[in-house]
Every structure is written in C-alpha cells, then in structure tokens.
Amino acid sequence: DAKTTQPPSMDCAEGRAANLPCNHSTISGNEYVYWYRQIHSQGPQYIIHGLKNNETNEMASLIITEDRKSSTLILPHATLRDTAVYYCIVRPGEGQKVTFGTGTKLQVIP
Amino acid sequence: GAGVSQSPRYKVAKRGQDVALRCDPISGHVSLFWYQQALGQGPEFLTYFQNEAQLDKSGLPSDRFFAERPEGSVSTLKIQRTQQEDSAVYLCASSLRGSGYTFGSGTRLTVV
Fold first, then answer.
1. Which end of chain A has fewer CB atoms < 10 Å from its terminal CB, N or C?
2. Which of A42, A46, A94 is opposite residue B98, by nearest beta carbon?
3. Which residues of B touch A40 (CB under 8 A)?
C-alpha cells in the first residue's frame, strides 16, 4: 500500500506557481520524501527530495511541514512542459521497496 | 552510460511466448529495481537487486516471472508463457546507496 496520498488531478495556468500537496502521515523519522514526475511514454524523472528541511533546486522547491506528515512540491513558474503525473513517495531504508501511488496529474493550461 | 538503458523499447509477444527484457543500469550503481506499470497506474514494485544478489522478489506476480543480474550490472527480466495480463510497461531503475532512483524509459510489452 502506498504510504502517501495525493489529489488525482490539478490544473495550473502557465506562468503561475503550481503547488502539489502530499500527505504522508505515517512517515518514520528516517524516511525521506521524494518527488518524481512522469511525462507520457517516459520513465519517472527525479525532481527533489528532503528529510525535514525545506529544499530547493533548479527544478522545484519542497516544503515539508514541521511534523513531517505532509509536504508540498512547488513549481515556481509552470510551463506547458511541466504537464505530467507527479508522484510523492516515502523512501524507506536502503534496499527496501518503494511504493508509488497513482500520483497527481498536473495539467498546465496556456 | 549517461542513463539507464532498457531494450527493447517495444515488444509484441504472442500469448504463450517467452520474452526477455534487458536493463543496463548506470555504471557503478549498486541497487537495481524492476517495476511494472499498467496503463493509468503508478509503477508497481517487482524485484530488487543489490549487486548480483536478488534481495527482494516479493512483487513478482507469478513463477512465470524471473529476474537475474549475474555480474552485478546488466539485468534481465524474463517472462515465461506470457499472458494478456502481462501487458504493461516494465521499468528499470538504478541508484547509488542512499540516493534517488534513475529510471529507464521502459519496455512496453503487448501480449496479443
């Protein structure tokens, strides 16, 4: 069973920030939150990950609540190429299987 | 190579035929995972290797599915006597210890 809950779909206007929420209320203290996205006909692509501090890279920002039970992926200026399915996963210890849910289908609208 | 390479990209098999799907992970990546993705669903875990050792095969749906990684690099997922329900995209991912996964583009298997 997936350890995360995400809305099935979201729309975002081109150029606006896209904020994708994720609930992971059963996360353990040593488990990281990872975000991936999957564009049609491609494998999932790594975006960002974090443990308890907010993180930012060239693709996105990750905001993790203080209790670590939820997080938000922020795409600051969404483009049409950001249209994809976004997966939030909780990564357990090394070698343990990662369970994907069904993700959030983000549609960026011109 | 620069990424995870999977071949073939597409495979059409007649029901009952055996297939072999290949994964070339990123050089030096210790961990290798196979996932199965049905249309409209998220990837489902099949099996995990650490070097040549298959440490978790709990996701393999039946004994018709077999995976190997004999030298700790290239891996092959074999499906015997394919059935229509085996039609899916098969994804391979590799990682260094403690890092995120890098996925290949997958093999789309269609059983007719």
1. N
2. A94
3. none
Summarised one tens digit per residue, pLDDT across range B42-95 is: 999 999 999 999 999 999 999 999 999 999 999 999 999 999 999 999 999 999
- CB contact under 8 Å between A98 and B33, yes or no, is yes
Tell me which residues of chain B have a C-beta less than 8 Å from any C-beta of chain A: 4, 31, 33, 35, 40-45, 48, 50, 55-56, 58-59, 91, 93, 97-98, 100-106
| Strand A45-50, strand A32-38: pairing | antiparallel
Residues of A in contact with B31 (CB under 8 A): 94-95
- CA A94 to chain B, closest CA, distance in angstroms equals 6
- Cα A18 versus chain centre, distance: 11
Question: What tokens appear for B101 in the block?
Answer: 């996964």
On the CB side of A53, CA atoms within 13 Å amount to 2
E strand intervals along chain B: 5-7, 10-13, 19-24, 31-37, 44-50, 53-56, 65-68, 75-79, 88-95, 102-103, 107-111
Nearest-neighbour CA in chain A from B62: distance (Å): 18
C-alpha to C-alpha distance for B22 and B34, rounded to whole angstroms: 11
Check: CB of residue B90 under 8 Å from CB of residue B36: yes
Question: Residue B56 and residue A87: Cβ atoms within 8 Å?
Answer: no
Given pLDDT bands bounded at 50, 70 and 90, which one contains residue A1?
A: low
